[in-house]
Write a structure and sequence with these properties.
Layout (H helix, E strand, L loop, with lengths): L1 H5 L1 H23 L7 H33 L8 H33 L3 H5 L10 H31 L7 H32 L4
Length: 203
């Protein structure tokens, strides 16, 4: 067991295997007939959407609740470890989880048959379906946050971390801009999550 837990790749694979085993055991124990149909595939896409979202928002909150506030407390000789090792790795998973969240979210909306309805915030049906309006608000907040990650935060972080060339002044300005847009995403994450979760209780 320690061999599995000592290697991240093995741990992740084991997690997926355990998920499959759980599905089989529950299906057998409850007598629930298992079928890979449209309904189940829709659920799988939702699950992947949530998995990516947990990674994305988890890292967003790590940056804003842990890393950024504590950087001034880190001795200067230790800061390169954050900037050259920890931050680039975290930003890799951060931006790709954002992409995965958006892609699976859009696919899910299409599979559920309300792609246009949620993108128009329910206006295409006269705001008659509250769930579509609520999901649409959450989706648009998510799209704005995704845009900020890929087209503002990541390009500026590359300058701030020295992954691309920049003067000390440019690095400082880029770091501040990335921080402010990261804080913007943190601000948007609360209503976005509320809209997404609450929509599931609107019929």
């Amino acid at each position: 067991m320690s061999g599995i837990l000592s290697n991240l790749k093995s741990t992740v694979i084991a997690g997926f295997v355990l998920t499959v085993v759980m599905i089989i055991v529950v299906s057998g124990a409850t007598g629930d007939e298992f079928a890979v149909d449209h309904s189940y595939m829709t659920f799988i896409v939702r699950w992947l959407h949530v998995l990516n979202g947990v990674m994305w928002i988890g890292l967003l909150w790590y940056f804003n609740f842990v890393q950024i506030p504590n950087m001034p407390n880190i001795p200067d000789e230790h800061k390169p470890a954050i900037g050259k090792v920890i931050a680039p790795a975290a930003l890799f998973w951060f931006r790709h989880a954002a992409m995965g969240t958006i892609i699976f979210g859009l696919i899910l909306a299409a599979m559920n048959g309300y792609f246009v309805e949620v993108l128009t915030l329910g206006s295409s049906e006269g705001f008659a379906v509250a769930k579509h309006t609520q999901l649409g608000i959450g989706m648009w907040f998510g799209i704005i946050m995704w845009f900020n990650v890929w087209f503002v935060i990541w390009p500026n972080q590359k300058v701030a971390l020295g992954l691309v060339d920049g003067t000390p002044e440019e690095k400082a300005a880029a770091g501040r801009k990335a921080m402010l847009f990261s804080r913007t995403n943190t601000l948007l994450s609360f209503p976005m999550l509320y809209a997404m979760v609450s929509a599931q209780n609107i019929y």
